[in-house]
């Protein structure tokens, strides 16, 4: 069976419970750099977030009381939310709906929307920072999802730097800089401690998100790049200057991964880790790929594989797997 580590949840729960949360300072306008632009923010008090990891960034900073609510698919409530160290926050803060849109955020009285490109923002739906600015609603864009100037490719800095950048920016915007710095220091220590498990030989790792005809995977700008690298592996698509992207099965075969890291959406449909593994093992072109032949699979939750405060614990969990594999 696909292996997962309960240690991921245990480590996160330890960090989430008993954390001392600093009270936000009095309101003041601050300016931060978001996706390469200097943006001024008045202190928001009715934030709407989109997606699990983005919402957990607010919760990790103790900012649930500054939120009007969050938007996630219903399936995520029985998956990622159920396993979240911030489950109690998810229960306290209103779940506004499954799909974000202008009417939803206006109805919630939002004064800031925290989302990202392909994490809510999309030209195809007309839900963009520019469209919200026209409505008088401020936006903060997830740094992992910032576009890098090449078409719709995303990612402007290494994934963990993106996490720390967002924590620091949010800390300034909401007046909880000390809390942000404590979190960053804790995360950096957790990742450094995980590095002590890393062996000299770094196995080649294929991140399998989804896709039958073509696999969806991680380039060097998405969180799996940092998780794989810091845990002691090598992302076989770490040369791609993008975050989440589609490749071909031929490229997977050519790069001969030794481990498959599966994105577990925990949504109960035909994309469970077991079903993904069954497909990979039955797909004839992959028959001689070392990871498939030697049955080396590991799964991590979706919310641990996108930019989120679960990333450091994911590094530790995957490092323990690679060290014992």
TrEMBL record:
Domain of life: Bacteria
KW Signal (keyword) present: yes
Domain (Fe/B12 periplasmic-binding): residue spans on this chain: 46-325
Signal sequence annotation: 1-22
Keywords: Signal
Pfam families: Peripla_BP_2
Xref: InterPro entries: ABC_Transporter_SBP, ABC_transptr_periplasmic_BD
Statement: the UniProt record of this protein carries the keyword Cytoplasm: no
Family classification: Belongs to the bacterial solute-binding protein 8 family.
Protein name per Swiss-Prot or TrEMBL: ABC transporter substrate-binding protein
Species whose genome carries this gene: Saccharothrix syringae (Nocardiopsis syringae)
């Amino acid at each position: 069976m696909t292996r997962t580590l309960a240690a991921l949840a245990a480590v996160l729960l330890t960090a989430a419970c008993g954390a001392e949360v600093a009270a936000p300072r009095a309101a003041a306008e601050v300016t931060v750099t978001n996706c390469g632009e200097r943006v001024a923010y008045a202190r928001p008090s009715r934030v709407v977030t989109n997606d699990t990891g983005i919402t957990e960034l607010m919760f990790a900073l103790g900012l649930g009381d500054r939120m009007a609510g969050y938007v996630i698919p219903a399936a995520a409530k029985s998956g990622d939310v159920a396993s979240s160290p911030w489950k109690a926050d998810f229960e306290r803060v209103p779940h506004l709906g499954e799909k974000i849109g202008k009417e939803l955020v206006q109805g919630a009285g939002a004064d800031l929307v925290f989302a990202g490109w392909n994490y809510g923002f999309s030209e195809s739906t007309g839900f963009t920072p520019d469209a919200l600015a026209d409505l008088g609603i401020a936006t903060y864009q997830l740094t992992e999802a910032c576009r890098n100037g090449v078409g719709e490719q995303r990612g402007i800095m290494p994934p963990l730097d993106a996490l720390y950048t967002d924590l620091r920016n949010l800390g300034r915007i909401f007046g909880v800089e000390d809390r942000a710095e404590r979190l960053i220091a804790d995360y950096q220590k957790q990742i450094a401690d995980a590095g002590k498990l890393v062996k000299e030989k770094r196995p080649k790792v294929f991140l399998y998100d989804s896709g039958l005809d073509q696999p969806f995977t991680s380039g060097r700008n998405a969180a799996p790049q940092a998780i794989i690298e810091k845990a002691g592996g090598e992302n076989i698509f770490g040369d791609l200057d993008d975050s989440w992207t589609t490749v071909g099965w031929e490229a997977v075969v050519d790069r001969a991964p030794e481990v498959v890291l599966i994105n577990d959406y925990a949504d109960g449909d035909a994309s469970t880790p077991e079903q993904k593994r069954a497909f990979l093992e039955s797909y004839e072109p992959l028959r001689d790929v070392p990871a498939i032949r030697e049955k080396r699979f590991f799964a991590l939750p979706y919310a641990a594989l996108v930019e989120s405060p679960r990333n450091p614990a994911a590094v530790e969990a995957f490092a323990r797997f690679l060290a014992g594999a």
